[in-house]
User: Fold Group II truncated hemoglobin from Streptomyces humicola.
Amino acid sequence: MTDQVPTLYEWAGGAEALEQLTEEFYARVRKDELLAPLFARMADDHPKHVATFLGEVLGGPERYTEHHGGYRHMLSRHRGRAIKAEQRARWVELMLEAMDVVGLPDDAEFRSAFIGYIEFGSRRAMANSQPGAGPTRRTTIKKWGWGEALPGDE
Ligand code: HEM
Assistant:
């Protein structure tokens, strides 16, 4: 039975859907007064890399680990950035907007699981970005699943 449950990655629509999401999201980030300064030197392929990272988190192929430096690279990109609480909150807000604009599935089960990860990941990113943040015990990308509500639950 459990084998038949799709991954969040499959449910979202795979790599293509996640790339659309991050393109839409970073287009908003670039225009946002709170976030634009943090991302002023972001490379053109940044949205694609974050889509690859999210795909791995959501149970898709482990491409970020295999080709983009994995967990440690992601961590190094947040280190020292001193992300502020209001910047994190805006990041989450724009991500939720982008999900609707690109039409990610909007069933309660998918959204609660995905948003749960967005909260988790953004809070970790903020904590690890603070000056003097210590080393993390984690060395690999955290995987995220459906949690308490599987697809089709009422
Ligand atoms: C679920 C939450 C998050 C995930 C999954 C995530 C993921 C990533 C990844 C994978 C990279 C490296 C991309 C690459 O390999 O090129 C990155 C870089 C970065 N992230 Fe995040 N991030 C998250 C939250 C945040 C938040 C909340 C902020 C700030 C408000 C932030 C700011 C940045 C910045 C400034 C960079 C470097 C951009 C550059 O290259 O100039 N991230 N993030």
